[in-house]
Amino acid sequence: MIVPDHERHHRAFLAAAQLRYPWQFRNRARNEVAEPVVVEVGRGWHPLLERLFADVERLVPESQRGIFRWQRLRANQGALEIRFEGGKDHVLPAILRARDAAAVCCEHCGAPGQRLEVAGQHAVSCPKAFFERLLAVHPADPAGVRRWLSSQPDAQTDHPSPALIESALREVMPPLPMLNGAHRQRLQGAWPILRADFGERLRSLRIAEFDPASGSGGSLIAVMSVTCDEAAHATAVNHLARAGFSDLRLRLVSLADLEQPALANEPWACMLALEASVTIPRYQPGI
After folding, report:
1. Which of 85, 93, 233, 266 is at 20 to 30 A from 173, Cα to Cα?
2. Torsions phi, psi for 278 (to 5 deg)
3. 173-214 pLDDT, tens digit each
4. What is the predicted pLDDT for the residue at 285?
5. C-alpha closest to that of 251 among 109, 122, 89, 72
6. How far, CA to CA in Å, does 177 sit from each of 37, 150, 180?
7. For 237-253, how does the pLDDT look when each residue is reduced to its tens digit (9 = 90+)?
8. Taking the alpha carbons of 154, 158, 161, 162 in that order, is the dihedral positive or negative?
């Protein structure tokens, strides 16, 4: 089994799981060369996996345990990725329950959480874990981070205030992108595509996390009058890709989200829009 470089309790968790449910981790045949089982989750998800292992123990008949084996259980951008061999009809309900539970459980501590981004990396975090993730990408040296923390009255609480989280977000924002004329002209081409998808709901377009050297990549932030669902977002991403904008990460934020970024579904994107982005002028044909 591949053991990530986590703390001692992770190794203990893995050892206990293998001892209690050995057949779930065993090669299907002694002479079979199989990839080792990969288990890479934070401590907060250990109870979820323990329940999953117990459910599989209950659901898979002994006569079919020889064909079942875990392949991978890991946190992947805020989702519980599960791969296995055999026994799908028996174990699928338990796997779906585990994935649903992981979507609202902090990977770090197990408290209620939500999927949140920090510098391109998503994880399910409670407010304290999200705050700690922000500090981990703080651009200053450790002494600078400590000085900043010392000025924050509730930095050590389990429930940092939205104001503190917003302050931390500001501390770790990337620099404002520097656009030349060619950059602006290309990015303006996204306007008609998104207007066709969103109509008057689209209020403005902004660019952040942009690499001026390559002239590509970055976050295209669409400020919307209302919150849009995932299906609308996926459709717009597809249309942008077909039009040659597959290098841009589309982020949708609503005007309401911008009023309280720390409480939004995507605090990072909201703060990018407020603090670390530049406006893309509206597309005007013939000009």
Report:
1. 233
2. -125, 150
3. 999 999 999 999 999 999 999 999 999 999 999 999 998 888
4. 59
5. 122
6. 43, 30, 10
7. 999 999 999 999 999 99
8. positive
Q: Are 167 and 137 in contact (CB under 8 A)?
A: no
Angle between helix 267-275 and helix 162-171 axes, rounded to 10 deg = 60
Beta carbons of 216 and 206 less than 8 angstroms apart: no
C-alpha Rg value of the chain to the nearest Å: 23
Return the number of other C-beta atoms located less than 10 Å from residue 167's C-beta: 18
Copy the structure tokens of residue 264: 């939004």
Where do the domains of the chain lie? 5-103, 114-172, 181-277
On the CB side of 244, how many CA atoms lie within 13 Å of its CA? 6
Q: What is the reported pTM?
A: 0.85
Phi and psi angles of residue 228, each rounded to the nearest 5 degrees, phi first: -105, 150
Query: Which token pair is 64?
Result: 């079919």
74 beta partners: 40, 81
